[in-house]
Structure formats: C-alpha cells, structure tokens
TrEMBL record:
It comes from the Eukaryota. It is found in: Nucleus. It holds the Pfam family FAR1. Residues 563-599 form the SWIM-type domain. Keywords: Metal-binding, Nucleus, Zinc, Zinc-finger. It comes from Rhizophora mucronata (Asiatic mangrove). One of its GO terms (molecular function) is zinc ion binding. GO terms for biological process: regulation of DNA-templated transcription. This is Protein FAR1-RELATED SEQUENCE.
C-alpha cells in the first residue's frame, strides 16, 4: 500500500447523516480512479468477447506472460479459469517449458488431519480435467519466442455462465483504490458486510456485482490487520507531533506579526481538538469586503482526522481572498459554533451580512445560534453537485427530467410558486419519503431564490467565483505531507504582498449612454463589466407607467416576467421587484431602463457601492496614468480600424488584400513577448513628455 502524498481529500459523507450514503464528486481522484477501473474491466470483458481466439498448436507468443494472458482471456470467455502448473528449466536455456492447465486439473493429495476435535472437511474442486496449454521456448535468429506445443480444450466438468465465471478466485481482484477505501472504512469501525454495501453504493452497482466478494474483503482485512495496527501507531505519533508543531508555528508567527491571530482547544489529554488562525492582511481585507463570507468545508484530512474550514471573501475585482482558516476535530454543531465564534473574534467582532456554506444541518444550527443576525445562504452549486448521488439511482432514467424541473424550481422568485412546484416535483417522481428531498425542503429558506433574493451575496454565487475558489484550494492543498507545510502555503496565499495585479483591461463603451461613461470612471473593470452588461440588455426592455407612479418593465420578446420599478425623484431612489441590486450591488437592467427614459445622465452615488469602486483596494494598482494612456491608444486604434473597414469594403480586391495582411500582422503580434513593465514605462514616458 502506497501512502498518498496529499493529506486532504473531499468530504464524502452525505449530510443526511446515513452512514451508507456517500457523495461522488466529478473529478474526485478516488472516485475517478475507481470508476475508471470498473470501466476498464467492463471494456476488457467486452473486448474478450469480441477479439479472443482459440489457441492452437504452433501459435507463437513473444513471452510466456503474453501466452498466459491470452489463454486466461480465452478461459474466462469459455467459463473456466486456469493456473500455472509445471515448469521445466535447463542450465543453458533457463525455463524452457511452461504448463498452463484448467483450474480443475489434477487431484488434491490427501492431507494429514489436524489434531483438533472438529477438523474441517473441505471438498476439492479438482476433478482431473485434461484441458491444458503447454508452451516451449525456442530461439530463432537470436530472438526468444514461445510456441504452443500442446493444446486441449476438453473438460470433464460443467463450464460456467458469464455471471458465474467472474466469481472464480482467478478473476476476483481488489484494486488498489478499493483497498485504500476498505482499510479506511475498517479503521472507522465498519464491519465487513457494511463495507461491501458502501462500495456497492459508491460504484452504483447492484448487490453482488463487485469484482470481488465479501470473503475476499474479509481475507484482505485479516491479512492487513497487523500492518494497519502498526500504521495506526505510527500515524498517531505523527498526528500528535505535527499538531504540536502547528501550535508552535502559530506562536512563532504571532511573535513576528502582531496582527496575526490564532486560537485552539484541547481535550482532557491535552491533545489538539480545534485550531483556527487569521492574518493581518485578512483582517484588513475583511474591513473592506467582509460583507459576504464563504465558509468552505469541502475538504478533510484522513491523516489527522480533521475537517478543514476556509473563510473566503470576494474583492472588487471578482477574485477570492482568504479571511481565515480552521481545523476541526468533527462536524458537530458545537465544533462549527466554536469556529464561527472564533472567526468573529478575529474580525474584531464585526459579523458579516451573509455567510455562504454547504448544506449541513449541524452547520445550519450553529449559524442560527452564533450568528442570528447574519443571513445564511446555502450555495446552489453545492446542492447541484450532490443531486446525481442523491437521485440518479432512485429515479433512474427519469433523472434528466427531474434535473430540468429542479433547475426551473431554483429560479422561481415567488414563494407560493416555489411551494406549489415543489409539491408537484416530489409527487411526480415519487420522492415523498426520500430523506434527501426532506433535507432539501427543511433547508429551503437558505437556498431557494424565492427566499434569499433579498440577501446580499455580491457575486459569490457565480460560476466564475466558484472557479476562483477552486483554483485557490488546489494551490494550497496540492502536494502536502504535513500540517506545517500546509500552514506555510496558506500563509503565502493569504499575503497580498505575494499577489500580482493584472494589467488593467480596456473596456470600450458599448451603449454611448452618459451613465455608462460616468460609471466607467468610478467602478473597477470587473464591476463595471457587470453593470455594462445590464446597460446593454436594458435597451431590449420596454416600460409602461402605472397609475400608482410605478413602471412595468418587460422584455420586448417577453423572454422573462414583468418587473415593477419605483423611481423616487426627490430621494434619487430606484427600486425594482427583481432585487438584483439588493442581491449583488449592481443595478439591474429594469431600473436602468427607467432611469434612462427619465433623462438620468448619471447614476446616483448610492448605486456605486464602495466595495465595487476603484478606490476600494488592497493592492497598489500602479500609476493610474497607464489607464488613461490605454484609453487613448484604444480610441486611436478604433478610429484607424473604422477607416480601414470603410476603405476595404469598396471592392473585393481591397478586402482580400486587407484581410490577408491583417491575418499576417495578427500572427506576428501573437508571437511577440508581452512585457508589463515595458507597457507601464511607455505610459509614464508618454505622460511626462506631454
């Protein structure tokens, strides 16, 4: 057994609390390897059925191993297995003869009965079957090869069917990935019969369809028991030593950095239970972007028996930033409660507006108890990733329809509509008594859009932010062997001094509306791109003034519903029933449409939240003159490109010439190196010269 270099794995235990229920994640190494092995085995069986031929005398093989594999495939296809029998060796040639025979060849020799009161009387499967394949080695032109000297396919016993032959000992194998899983479950106290059930559920196979049987698992566990006990002793020592070292590292960090904060708890034996820490940069970042926090508990450590929790935020460039880290001994409500208390204390007592988590009843209870005034949102991405594990097996071929209806359900904005459609969904697919449906419904106030649309979540529920946090996790969790290395990697990732600022992108004006030009001078490129997208779409909406002074806004093709917008001129306030601004801090297309039609040439200052502004920054972005110079260059380029397009469209000869030359220039430009420092220096020189 080769130990893994990485101490972190995804949490697989289902939040429903049933020990038999595990979650399969796409891209998870363990599940991918296991599934691939099952797939390879199935492919091999299909290949054997299609491409295996009957051996014959004179058939030549490059090696005796190739011959054995070929004969074994033939045997499996025909309902029996083989074993290696006699081999003959000479001083000059070495082994020059190999005998492969049917597994029921020969007879067992009588054994001396053991001196016990009730000796076991085992019946032998050997019955003198004469099926065989004999090989002889020869050297032709200096090349060694093996040829079939004798072959017989005459059996004196019944051959097995396909569903029976796989149970023969020769074809029952426990792959390495399954061995690791078996030892892990055994260590957790699972009996062998339950281990087999767990593996069947994880692989999605019917009972009895694994490539091994319960007896094989029992024998494997018995064989490894001594090794496991020795490894447990070594692992216990490693766990104790590494946790002590982690505490010492935190103490040393606190002495060097007054802003570094940490706390931990110990059990009655003075062994580490929980530990959490945060950095000075993280606290400063929280003061700007701590309105929305993502508490990620995706990973845990088998080596140390600890759950990893990471607090993330989103900056005004749409990137993930680390607020803090915690290691917990278990996933109980008490442990989560301690983690939340400690995090708020690290952040100088400031509670976030919203916390996003995975679906977990214990964490939900801890949130309600420790942060009663904070909005708790369960990320829809965590729910969607679990749906295949929860429902693909119970409802089978109907899962595609179920998933489509569930997606529609997630986007319903009215609570009454949600409740009605939920009952219809549960009834249609026969999930009234399903435990996972019950878990989802009991947590609906934390994930359904109809309940959470008024909660501020910034843009943390987008696919882009999910990818950003995944990339962050891979960066700090890859290739680790101990907690000290993990702490060092987290420290590097959390420091803003180690972060590089991307070149400020040029975002051209798309609508020519004054409010767009004004917004570009205030917002970061990321937040401006979000608002600009809404501005572009706003032009596809029409509005109608209602009797109460509100405005009914709807897409001209009626692609979505109707939305009510209220514009209060005296207070410069605009409110839309879609609640997009309340949810993300970005004004919606419906409100923008009304403001434009009311001759509003600049958005009110209150609709530029500070967290999305350019001046709200943690990392120096360099000379701002670089941006103005970039704008000038872009405008000059657009002017030249527009003239070139006009001239090239006058005749086909001009168009072909321009297209050919531009293609060549584009390839040359792509091959040129990009130097950020050079571009900034050019900007500074341009400013100084002017």
């Amino acid at each position: 057994m080769k130990p893994s270099n990485n101490i972190w794995i995804r949490r697989q235990q289902c939040p429903c609390g049933d020990w038999k229920c595990y979650i399969k994640y796409e891209g998870d190494d363990r599940m991918t390897v296991s599934s691939q092995m099952v797939k390879n085995e199935t492919t091999a069986m299909m290949s054997a059925n299609e491409a295996v031929f009957t051996p014959y005398v004179g058939q030549i093989f490059k090696s005796d191993d190739d011959a054995f594999d070929d004969y074994s495939n033939f045997a499996r296809k025909n309902g029996f297995s083989i074993r290696k029998a006699r081999s003959t060796e000479s001083q000059n040639l070495g082994i020059y003869r190999r005998d492969f025979v049917c597994y029921r060849s020969g007879f067992n020799q009588p054994r001396k009965k053991a001196n016990v009161e009730h000796p076991r009387d085992r019946k032998s499967v050997r019955c003198g079957c004469d099926a065989k394949m004999y090989l002889t080695k020869e050297i032709v032109d200096g090349v060694t090869q093996w040829y079939v000297s004798q072959f017989s396919n005459v059996h004196n016993h019944e051959l097995l069917e396909d569903d029976q032959v796989r149970l023969l000992p020769a074809y029952r194998k426990i792959h390495e990935a399954d061995q690791e899983r078996i030892l892990l479950l055994c260590k957790a106290g699972f009996p062998v019969n339950q281990i087999v059930k767990v593996l069947e559920l994880e692989k999605g196979v019917q009972p009895g369809q694994l490539p091994f049987i319960e007896k094989d698992v029992r024998n494997f566990v018995r064989t490894c028991k001594k090794t496991v006990q020795e490894n447990d002793a070594l692992l216990s020592d490693k766990r104790d030593n590494d946790t002590v070292e982690l505490i010492e590292v935190c103490k040393g960090m606190a002495e060097r950095d007054a802003d570094f904060a940490y706390d931990y708890t110990t059990d009655q034996s003075e062994k580490l239970e929980n530990i959490a820490w945060s950095y000075g940069d993280s606290v400063r970042a929280y003061s700007l972007f701590g309105d929305v926090v993502t508490f990620d508990t995706t990973y845990r450590s088998i080596t140390y028996g600890l759950l990893l929790g990471l607090w993330f935020g989103m900056d005004n460039h749409g990137k993930s930033i680390l607020f803090g880290c915690v290691l917990l001994q278990d996933e109980s409500s008490q442990s989560f409660g301690w983690a939340l208390q400690t995090f708020v204390r690290f952040m100088r007592g400031r509670c976030p507006q919203t916390v996003l988590t995975d679906i977990d009843p214990s964490l939900r209870d801890a949130m309600a108890r420790e942060l009663p005034n904070t909005n708790h949102v369960i990320s829809i991405w965590h729910i969607l990733s679990k749906l295949p594990s929860w429902f693909s097996w119970p409802i089978g071929s109907q899962y595609v329809d179920f998933r489509a209806e569930f997606d529609i359900l997630c986007h319903l904005e009215n609570i009454e509509d949600f409740e009605q459609q939920w009952n219809h969904l549960v009834s249609r697919f026969g999930l009234v008594s399903d435990k996972h449906i019950s878990l989802l419904f009991s947590s609906r106030q934390c994930w359904s859009l109809s309940y959470i649309k008024r909660y501020f979540v910034a843009c943390t529920m987008t696919a882009e932010f999910l990818q950003s946090t995944d990339a962050f996790l891979k960066r700090i969790l890859s290739g680790q062997t101990c907690l000290q290395v993990f702490f060092e990697q987290v420290s590097v990732a959390a420091s803003f001094q180690n972060q590089t600022t991307d070149t400020i992108p040029y975002l051209p004006i798309k609508t020519c509306m004054p409010i767009e030009e004004h917004a570009r001078t205030i917002l970061t490129p990321y937040s401006f791109s979000l608002l600009q997208h809404e501005m572009v779409l706003s032009m596809q909406y029409g509005m109608q003034e209602m009797a109460d002074g509100s405005y009914l806004v709807q897409h001209f093709k009626k692609l979505d519903g109707e939305y009510l917008v209220f514009w209060i001129v005296e207070d410069e306030q605009v409110h839309c029933s879609c609640k997009e601004f309340e949810r993300t801090g970005v004004l919606c297309r419906h409100a923008i449409r009304v403001l434009v039609m009311k001759n509003c040439f600049q958005l009110p200052e209150k609709y530029f939240p500070f967290r999305w502004r350019q001046e709200c920054t943690l990392v120096a972005t360099g000379d701002q003159n670089a941006r103005s110079y970039s704008d000038e260059c872009a405008q000059d380029f657009h002017s030249v490109a527009a003239t070139l397009l006009t001239e090239s469209m006058l005749c086909k000869q001009r168009f072909d010439y321009v297209h050919r030359e531009l293609s060549r220039v584009l390839e040359d430009v792509k091959s040129m190196p990009v130097t950020q420092e050079f571009s900034l220096n050019m900007a500074n020189n341009h400013v100084s010269e002017s």
